[in-house]
Amino acid sequence: MKKILMKYGIMVFILSLTSCISRLSPEEEVRNTFEAYMKEMQTGNSQEAVRNFCRGKYKETTTNLLGMMELMGEKTSLYKDYTAIQEIAFLPDYSDVAIVLANMSNNEPISFILHFDNSESWKIYYAEASNLILLKNFINGDHLSEWGIFTISDSDMEDLETIF
Fold first, then answer.
1. What is the spatial distance between Cα 106 and Cα 33, in angstroms, rounded to a whole number?
2. Which residues contact 55 (CB under 8 A, 6 or more apart)?
3. Which of 95, 99, 123, 159 could form a disulfide with 55 if both were Cys (CB 3.0 to 4.6 A apart)?
4. What top-level branch of life does the organism fall under (predicted)?
5. Residue 42 contacts residue 79 (beta carbons within 8 Å)
6. Could you tell me the domains of the chain?
7. How many angstroms separate the first and last alpha carbons of the chain?
8. Which stretch of 115-119, 124-128, 158-162 has the lowest confidence by average pLDDT?
9. Which residues are bridge partners to 113 per DSSP?
10. What DSSP string runs through the chain?
């Protein structure tokens, strides 16, 4: 009996240890989401990529762009000149909002805004051909709501937690 308990005790310990190890950091989750999106966009699965990875105005705009490209007989693989992620940053008071600065082969940066939304996954809500990481301290709730991101700042969340 002792051997059986010991065996199961070790197994439980190993399972709990592996569940802690397999948890990715928010930065790794953002990186994995963004890389999967870019891979789908580059391989021609653009419509599916937009459906799975995008939300808000960005989803609407990109869907319309892909539809126009399809009507004109153009290949619908966007971001074919994407090379790698240059940098990932989180907004100072919004730990659920990330900026991904993407490298393109023409050396023009594109910033993507991702939000960890109520689907409990990172989604792309906005893109701009500039380095928004330089402006991250100036991005506020008004900008976020304009992009379709409705969230509460970390400091407001702390205030709410102290009230309740």
1. 23
2. 115, 117, 123, 124, 125, 148
3. 123
4. Bacteria
5. yes
6. 27-163 (3.10.450)
7. 48
8. 158-162
9. 99, 126
10. -HHHHHHHHHHHHHHHHHHHHTPPPHHHHHHHHHHHHHHHHHTT-HHHHHHHHB-HHHHHHHHHHHHHHHHTT------TTEEEEEEEEEETTEEEEEEEEEEETTS--EEEEEEE-TTSSEEEEEEESS-GGGGGGG--HHHHHHTT-----HHHHHHHHHH-
Of residues 109, 121, 112, the one with CA closest to residue 62:
112
Beta-bridge partners for 100:
88, 112
107 Rama class: left (phi>0) / alpha (psi -120 to 50) / beta? left
